[in-house]
Design brief:
This protein has 64 residues and is mostly helical. It is built from 3 helices and no strands. α1 packs across α2 and α2 crosses α3.
């Protein structure tokens, strides 16, 4: 039960972090947005902060 709650909390916090990072990047006029969908939420849930960094790294690579 503890693992399930931990996973859900990481999903929620990862989604909130993606929202704020996307908002900050939009304010600086950078076009590096990571969409908030099931795949990105699950990635942040499974991998945590390294997963978020990976998602934005993939977005940066894709924008080049």
């Amino acid at each position: 039960m503890e693992r399930i709650i931990n996973f859900i909390m990481r999903c929620v916090l990862g989604t909130i972090a993606m929202y704020f990072i996307n908002t900050i990047l939009a304010g600086t006029q950078l076009s590096l947005n990571v969409g908030i969908n099931a795949v990105t939420v699950l990635t942040s849930g499974f991998l945590g902060i390294p997963g978020l960094i990976m998602l934005y790294g993939i977005g940066l690579y894709k924008s080049l």
